[in-house]
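input
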Amino acid sequence: MVHRPGTLEEVCTVTEAFEHFYNTQRPHQGRNCRNRPPSQAHPVLPTLPALPALIDPDAWLQAVHGRTYARRVKSDGRVSVDGADYYIKQALAGQRITLRVNAAERCFEVLQHESIIKQLPIKGLQGQQMPLDDYITLMQERARSEERQRLINLRRRYLQAR
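output
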């Protein structure tokens, strides 16, 4: 019989009972457990480091330093990178340019024929550290926004296909 808890207290009780069974009685087929319950396979778990109080939301920039993105300049002189538009120059419409990430300057270097023709600040950077809770809220908002945009695009493609 399946138990369907009706209150938060019942959900907590059922969850605790399942967690206890899962960790102490149920054989686990993972390599490290070798068909033993996790509490037997790993009786002492390592202590995890504490979560940081402050987060640098722009730290990812160092990981992409030097990465390049090839783009064709649109008729209005813009290119798009990760959903953000950057104005290059209308005179370059139809031509290919390269944007190179410069993490130290927090910008894209716009290259044409290997020469830097301009620098553009990377959009969407926070510019400072933030408390962990604020960072989590920011990431949740961005995820919701991306999901909304995905659904809008899906609907647009569906309507165009009709």
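quick obs: The longest helix spans residues 132-161.
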